[in-house]
């Protein structure tokens, strides 16, 4: 019990220490943030003071420049020339003759001009002129930018038009190439069909015996003539040649490829094969080309379903045919 209390106290102390450390870290972060804010405020104040000083200096310079211009204008005024005193002037003066000093530079008119045009107004006018010139230069820059931007847009528009024309030409080329490819595919298909037809004709008298066990040193010709052909009870059947073909598939031995002397002999065997070979371990199939074999396997499921429903089809000439020998049209299989 005492150990548990000590452990609880230690845990509480550790939690308190962690909380204190977290609070200290938070306080330090807050102090750092406050210092950063104060520094930013000081920098802003310094910048404002510098800007105000610069403005004051600029205004003083403008005032000084305006005063210099006014003094130069006064210095450039022509001196008044003395005129001769007439008798009328003497009578009008009545003993009170104002004297005019030759070469004086200030006149009452000048004093009136100086009082009418204060120095701050001339400074303001100078500042206004500078601002107007700056605005005019900015306007000119904006106009030039507008012109440059218009030229760039026009250039890009021309490039886009060129690209569109090139794309259109490429589209036409693509259409031409597609048409040529279709023509080539059609021609190739026709050639394949012709080659397949020639190959089919070369296999016209052939059939295959599938499922006959293979033995070392066997004589395939004697197997066919002595064991298989007697089952058909037709002594007129003549075998031109026979041999094993391929390596076998699905655990079966290689097929025996047999070539009859005539097509009629092969037809007689193909008609009787189902009844003659019923219950045997081997069977006989037609020797099909690769293209015909693909076509036959393509519709094998549909042919089986039709056979279960009472419709019998046979494969001949590269197509599935009905009892009348006409090609059967299958419905497109849903994918």
UniProtKB/TrEMBL annotation:
Keywords: Membrane, Transmembrane, Transmembrane helix. Residues 75-112 are annotated as: Disordered. The chain crosses the membrane at residues 7-32, 38-64. It comes from the Eukaryota. Gene3D superfamilies: L1 transposable element, RRM domain. The keyword Transmembrane helix applies. InterPro entries: Transposase_22. Residues 101-112 have a biased composition (Polar residues). This is Uncharacterized protein.
